[in-house]
Amino acid sequence: MSDRLNTRPQGMELVEITPVIVGGDPSDSQNKIMVTRQQHFEMVRYWNRVISDLRSESLRALNYELR
Questions:
Q1: Dihedral angle computed from the Cα positions of residues 54, 55, 60 and 62, in that order, rounded to the nearest 10 degrees
Q2: CA end-to-end distance (rounded Å), the chain
Q3: Which phi and psi angles does 9 have, rounded to 5°?
Q4: What letters, b where the CB count within 10 A reaches 16 and e where it falls short, cover 26-37?
Q5: What are the tens digits of pLDDT across the range 26-52?
């Protein structure tokens, strides 16, 4: 992992740009970024919405196939 990711500036959090659950690579340093706590909250809300939508679509497709 690069040096820029090994130290955490105060008030910053290291996060994955694309979460593993939606295909992000947990070991790729290009998938990591330092963000403020507020930015982290916003990213989490965004990805939670995306993941929820994907799960809903998957369930609808499964229910359609079972008919």
A1: 110
A2: 49
A3: -60, 145
A4: eeeeebbbbeee
A5: 999 999 999 999 999 999 999 999 999
- Domain with 47, as residue range(s), is 3-65
What pTM was computed for the model?
0.73
How many domains is the chain built from?
1
* CB 14 within 8 Å of CB 8: yes
Per-residue HEC secondary structure of 1-55 comes to CCHHHHCCCCCEEEEECCCHHHCCCCCCHHHEEEEEHHHHHHHHHHHHHHHHHHH
